[in-house]
Write a structure and sequence with these properties.
two-stranded antiparallel ribbon
């Protein structure tokens, strides 16, 4: 039976891999214009632009583009992902409360969502000290989210210490940028 089945299966597979004729594909233009059609590229040929050679018109994004995931909307507080700290401190400033409340609300509405809180420090201090300080910063954000009602099972606090700087310069502005905890969703 295998002697007959395998050649037939191979023949069917090879016949299914043949080229398809040119087909019309609808291209959705989200800039407000009507939909256009474009011819699919022939096998081995050049690709078509899909918009009659015009490309994507304009750079304005429609306001409902981020309706599926509010974390991606730049106007949403969920798009803010970093809590910055003062030098040698792990106290969460009150200016980050609206951002943390937004993340807490999102996490409460999506019980299967998980966040990793990544604590960071600037390059000043020993590696061991910065690793401990980064952990304290991540734990401080974790406690703030827990107070706002987020389940401990949804959060993980880790420290990178000075190992993942956002700005590698040796200036006060760079140091301030590196003293942070980043909120990273596990599904991103």
């Amino acid at each position: 039976m295998n002697k007959i089945f395998l050649p037939v299966l191979l023949a069917l597979t090879l016949s299914a891999c043949g080229t398809t004729p040119d087909t019309q594909a609808t291209v959705e233009d989200r800039t407000g214009a009507t939909a256009t059609t474009a011819t699919a590229a022939p096998a081995g040929g050049a690709e078509s632009t899909g918009l009659d050679g015009a490309g994507v018109a304009g750079s304005a994004l429609p306001s409902d583009q981020y309706a599926g995931d509010p974390r991606k909307d730049p106007a949403s507080p969920l798009s803010r992902r970093s809590v910055h700290f003062d030098f040698d401190s792990y106290v969460v400033k009150s200016e980050y409360r609206p951002m943390l409340e937004a993340h807490a609300s999102y996490l409460q509405s999506k019980r299967d969502a998980r966040v990793i809180l990544q604590g960071n420090a600037d390059e000043r201090g020993s590696r061991e000290y910065n690793l401990a300080l980064g952990q304290k910063r991540a734990e401080a954000v974790r406690r703030a989210l827990a107070v706002l009602g987020v389940s401990d099972a949804q959060m993980e606090a880790i420290s990178f210490g000075e190992e993942k700087p956002r700005n590698e310069a040796s200036s006060e502005d760079a140091y301030a940028e590196n003293r942070r905890t980043d909120v990273v969703y596990a599904d991103e």
